[in-house]
Amino acid sequence: MKKRTLPRLYVVSNSPQRPYPENELPELAREITAHGAAIIQLREKHLSAKAFYELALRVRSRIEYTSSLLIVNERFDVALAAGADGTHFPEDSCPLDKARAAAPGMLAGKSIHSQRSALSAETEGADYLIAGPVFETPLKTQYGAPLGLEKFSEICRIVSIPVYAIGGITPSNTRQCLDRGAYGVAALSIFRTSESLANTLESFNNMLNQCT
Amino acid sequence: MLCCITADASCPVTQAEKALEGGAAMIQLRHKSASGSDLYCWALEIQKLCRTHNAIFIVNDRLDIALAVNADGVHLGQQDLPAEAARKLFGKSKIIGISVSSVAEAEEAVRTGCDYVGLGHIFPTPSKKKLGQPLGPNAITEISQRLPVPVIAIGGITGANVCEVIRAGATGIAVISAVAASADPAQAASELIQNMQSCLQKHR
Question: Is B198 assigned a catalytic role?
Answer without folding.
Answer: no
